[in-house]
Write the structure tokens for this entry.
Amino acid sequence: MRRDVFQAIADPIRRDIIELVSNESLTVNEVAKKFEISRPAISKHIKILKECGLIEINQIGRERYCQIQPKNLIPAFLWIEKYQKLWENKLDSFENYLIKLQTKNNKNE
């Protein structure tokens, strides 16, 4: 199965793993200790992140370290950025509507 960055970030646990390893390289066991799900479940999430190119696994002795590959998040960032302005405009319009309602209600009191 071909995976992409959007599949990787679709799951909240994988987003949390990305955040964890973005600060420092961690062993698979260190990552697993941060979650209340099983070690095999974490390994499966890490495998998906690796297949999507967001995490690289480096073997040092007996330990396997997870290291972020941030450049592979760029497609998701660019896609989200494209819609950011659209949502900002919609939220600004909604805020203006609420202010008008509040002003109207204050005049009627």
User: Anything to note?
Assistant: The CA atoms of residues 57 and 66 lie 5 Å apart. The mean pLDDT is 89.
